[in-house]
Design brief:
The chain is an alpha+beta fold. Among the domains are: 99-134 and 198-276, no CATH class; 281-329, no CATH class. Helix content is 36%, strand content 24%. The protein has eight helices and 14 strands. Strands 5-4-3-10-11 form a five-stranded antiparallel sheet, with helices on both faces. A four-stranded antiparallel sheet has the order 6-7-8-9. It has a three-stranded mixed sheet with strand order 12-13-14. Helix 1 (3-51) runs antiparallel to helix 2. 23% of the residues are buried.
Length: 346
């Protein structure tokens, strides 16, 4: 074989290798870009959902509407995937979302698929809400019911504080004064330490939510199989740091799993998306329209119970956001802030 034949063969080999590498690189980039696209669509949808979790009810009081949150989430998700008018594709896509969890102040709900038999004997599948599930922890004496703040309930299993089965509701900081005999004898009890209380409370809330989500996610395998989905649904891992971000306020968790994407067989999307309302009653504000100016009120302000005119029915999460709208502080709930000038002529 002549030398130029060897050179030609080498050039062909190099070109083939480069072309194959370029094809693989392009394929990998397409997969990465598609995954990032799904990330964005899911993020927008869950943000839309959590933004509608809190609604204004009668007397301008805040109410939690998990139904509004779910409707907003799915409407946004279907819009982002371009299937808002395609019921068939919507049903197919939602099958890759085995569960959604929504937390409230004193418990949480799971939105999941269930199979049921109708009166005519037919088998049907629908989505439903669980009953409200409590955040709890148990030891030898009590079942502790937690909330997203400092309030707790104590279920006295053995009557160590009174009668068997009694339930006491109080702030955890009050236990030593309310039940001095029991807690003075137990100085290392977690309710007597702020750090221990918060660590155990958050750990208990996480464990309750995570175990229930895992249970319902695994049950989804039977239902998904009836739609030809062979993916093995199991709750994805979420780091402790991420969990801790969402255990002080109302939040929403969405499991999106098994969704096929990319050109490679077996490439599936798998993650838990989460979003917190990032609000609490003592730092949520509403704007009142008063004559020519606006006044901001903390959501617990008694003025909000009156028949006042709200500016936009929208919650604001800081005084800075309210001031940016040109609002002044309420003299009742914000006595130390800047109030509207009095232009009344004597």
């Amino acid at each position: 074989m002549k030398i130029y034949h060897l050179v030609l063969a080498f050039v062909v080999l190099i070109i083939s290798t480069v072309v194959i590498a370029d094809i693989k690189t392009d394929s990998l980039m397409n997969v990465i870009n598609e995954k990032e696209s799904i990330d964005r669509k899911l993020r927008v949808a869950i943000d839309d959902g959590i933004s509608n979790l809190l609604q204004i009810g009668e007397n301008n009081q805040l109410i939690v509407s998990k139904e509004k949150a779910i409707d907003s989430f799915y409407a946004s998700l279907y819009t982002n995937f371009g299937i808002l008018s395609d019921k068939g594709k919507q049903a197919e896509l939602s099958m890759y979302i085995p569960i959604i969890a929504v937390t409230e102040e004193d418990g949480y709900y799971i939105y999941y698929y269930q199979e049921y038999i109708s009166q005519d004997g037919g088998s049907h599948i629908s989505q439903r809400w669980s009953e409200k599930l409590p955040y709890y922890y148990e030891d030898e004496d009590f079942i502790y019911g937690f909330t997203l703040d400092e309030n707790i309930s104590l279920y006295d299993k053995n009557g160590v504080l009174g009668e068997n089965g009694s339930v006491y509701k109080l702030n955890y900081k009050e236990v030593k004064n309310v039940f001095p005999t029991y807690f003075t004898a137990r100085p290392s009890h977690f309710l007597l330490s702020e750090e221990s209380f918060y660590l155990l409370r958050k750990g208990a809330i996480q464990e309750c939510i995570e175990s229930t989500m895992a249970y319902h996610t695994s049950l989804h395998n039977h239902i998904a199989s009836q739609y030809g989905i062979t993916y093995n649904f199991a709750l994805p891992q979420m780091s402790e740091d991420i969990w801790m971000l969402y255990l002080d306020n109302l939040c929403m968790f969405v499991v999106f799993q098994g969704y096929p994407y990319g050109n490679e067989v077996g490439e599936v999307y798998n993650r838990i998306a989460s979003a917190g309302a990032k609000i609490s009653k003592d730092r949520t504000y509403y704007l009142e329209q008063v004559k020519w100016y606006l006044v901001y009120h903390i959501s617990t302000c008694p003025k909000l119970k009156e028949n006042i005119l709200l500016y936009d029915n929208k919650p604001y999460y800081s005084i800075k956001d309210c001031v940016a709208k040109g609002a002044y502080g309420c003299e009742i709930c914000c006595p130390n802030e800047i109030h509207a000038p009095d232009y009344t002529v004597p």
